[in-house]
Amino acid sequence: MSYLTRRLSTFPLVMLGVSILVFVAIRMVPGDAITAMLGTEAGLLTPAQREALANYFGIDQPIAVQYWHWLLGVFRGDLGISVTYGKPVLGVILERFPLTLQLALMSMCVALLVGLPAGVFAATRNEKMSDLAVRIFAMIGQSTPNFVVGLLIIYALSAGFGILPTMGEFTPLLVDPLRNLGQMILPAVTLGFAFAASVTRISRSAMLDVLSDDYVRTARSKGVPKRSVIWRHALPNALIPVVTLSGVEFGYLLGGAVLVEQIYALPGLGRLVLDAILQRDYALVQGCVLFIAFNFMVVNLIVDLVYVALDPRIRLGEGG
Amino acid sequence: MTPLLSVSNLRVGFGRNPLENEVVRGVSFELAAGETLAIVGESGSGKSVTALSINRLVDFGGGKIISGTVNLARTGNSILDLAKADEPVLEKIRGSEIGMIFQEPMTSLNPVLTIGTQIEESFRLHRGLTGKQATAAAKDALDRVRIPDAARRLKYTPNQLSGGMLQRVMIATALACNPRLLIADEPTTALDVTVQAQIMALLAQLKRETGMAMIFITHDIGLVAGIADKVMVMQAGEAVEQGGLGDVLDRPQHPYTRHLLGAVPHFESGRAARSDYVRDQLEMASPALRVDGLTVRFKVAGGVFRRSPGSVHAVENIDFDLMPRETLAIVGESGSGKSTTARAILGLVHPTRGGFATHTGRIADATDPSVQMVFQNPYASLNPRLRVDSILAEPVIAAGGRVNGETRARMAALLKRVGLPENCLERYPHQFSGGQRQRLCIARALMLNPSIVVLDEAVSALDVSVQAKVLELLVDLQREYGLAYLFVSHDMAVVERIAHRIAVLYAGEIVEIGDAASVLSNPQHSYTKRLISAVPSIDRRNQHFELDTRQVPSLVRPPGFEPPVAQWRSFGPDHRARAEV
Predict the structure, then answer these.
(1) Ramachandran region of residue B149, left (φ > 0), alpha (ψ -120 to 50) or beta?
(2) What is the set of domains in chain A, with CATH numbers?
């Protein structure tokens, strides 16, 4: 597992780079934290009060010094205090994260359950009408913004069936699974729609490549039935690009889906980041971005490990 | 007695309109049980399509049987017309009654499944075996194709085995359920010559053991001689001649058969070697290229916490010199280091030790215009987006020159010289055939007026009749421009026709070097002997090879390893071989 240790050893370096970038970037946005926090009341502050506040939050010091203090905190497991929530940043993030993780997982399930079979089906009926239908559907799925899909789903359900999506206070999965799923299923479908379209397209083209490979011909020459040729011989070889795509998309979803969270009124990571940026809640933004970057790297690592499991030719960590 | 297989008036077309793209145009033949039919032809002759039509795999490649019958006598003497059979019926027949092996063992096995799983599959499908029984049957199948240590190898995935081993696995899979007909589509074309001999010997032996019939497709008439009872020669989708082995090979009737027999370079044990250049002592002082102790090693990467396990000694301490107007052939099998040697001389790989000098006195590197190269695959070595004039201008620009009227005149003259029409300067590579493309590559190599041309398997990818013409052109150009050729090849028959001298490479070292006639007629090193006896030939059609399961030795050596100093023995004025321990 020397590969794993090598990959893990790059984690801190990437995190360091990401944190410096975001630290500098957020401070280059016009406007300051105090104005953002106090709104119009900020105009009433005397310069001395302003300075005292800035000193209290530590934002009167040079960026490098601020960064250094923050970094020392990170090593102690302290990502700072969110000014908007008045709570430790890590706690705020971990409060929101289960929802985002659940949403991402559910969307991916929708995408794979719909996209893989659709792509495989289209590939086996290459250039026939049914293939064309799947391709058009996939094209629409990819090119429609997900807030449009979300609104259409809500409209169709309420106008057509009189069903309204379960709104109101978000219920965590463990508290009331049924109510939770009722709240989550529509957002998951909305996000999964475009995701499924991408999966369909990539699995279709990968399958088309694989189906003309020599070993598929060999399988047929052995008398392997069609179903088995497709699912047992061809599909495992076509999965690599699907895994790559799913990994990237899943990584994005873990960063939160602002629009869909907004439409369905879900308190996810996406809205947390957006609010934090609008509020100039420096500590929270930094914490969120760092957390998202970390998730992305974990997802990438998992993707690499899945590659190894799928294809024995990929031997990570061995020479060559 | 009814024949096992009877094909009559088979016509096969491709695409949306099969009638317009007819590839097989009315082929008929019969095959009795236990008989071997060889189908011979060049690429595009329809020989593979004919074979794929028998088990109807052609359907999956976009082909369609237009008319004709393919009658297979099944067990119990019922006759089934495969041309009209439905897919479920065909699935039952494939693998159980008709087995098939293909050209590329490296790509013909599923890379993500173990070979055990792939062999077992046949038993599961057609014999209903499961679990331990299937595994045991798979092990027996591997034993049958003489794969040593079969039980352990079942758990290997294809990337862990060599090409020759994989082709044995393919054969084991195809023969798993004892089919009465085996279709072998160029099963040895992608393999080294000694491995080819092994596979041919294995097929012949299995044929005797099982009494199966075989359809053997090949472009190499030399191979046909060793295995076939009947031969069918195909050209442009038609069978132009068929008959018994002796009749077709010794008394060919059709002009195309005679042409094929004439075009194929038959290996003649040194009798056909060139004699138009003899080394003389005066000239020896100024060779076109002198290689001195050339050594190329590639370090094997270790992990973060692991030391490198050593280096691959790809080329070890090679010496030779090459005179102007002389061809030195470097022969050896895959992994012997012959291509690495060529690449080092072009400056594409850095030698670990040793070096070489061209006649100009400078150490050759990638920018030395006096060394040029022609590659193996003319389809991959021309940029499809460049026009011919840009392709030919490329070496001039790379050498720092300017493209002017003189350059253009040289382009036109060279194209004419290599036998291409002058007006092709404005065309793109895809508008040429394989042979024409290779001529284009030769013209490109000659643009800078080199003194040395490295030809890396330069004719291996071409059809035999095209091959003969390109070889002829190379010989003419050599005389005309006084070129020195370094000809890298695995094909002994081709080497015999172009080489003045031969260096035999084995495991990165030269084991024998000398004038072509001596090396080929009187080989001294055991490896050279093995290599030469493996060359299929019409003369030795009845000779059989012993099965040999030795693997090529690994070239990975521990750090700091130095090979022992070679002892050489002389066998003539210009012929020496490494002493064997």
Answers:
(1) left
(2) 10-75 (no CATH), 97-310 (1.10.3720.10)
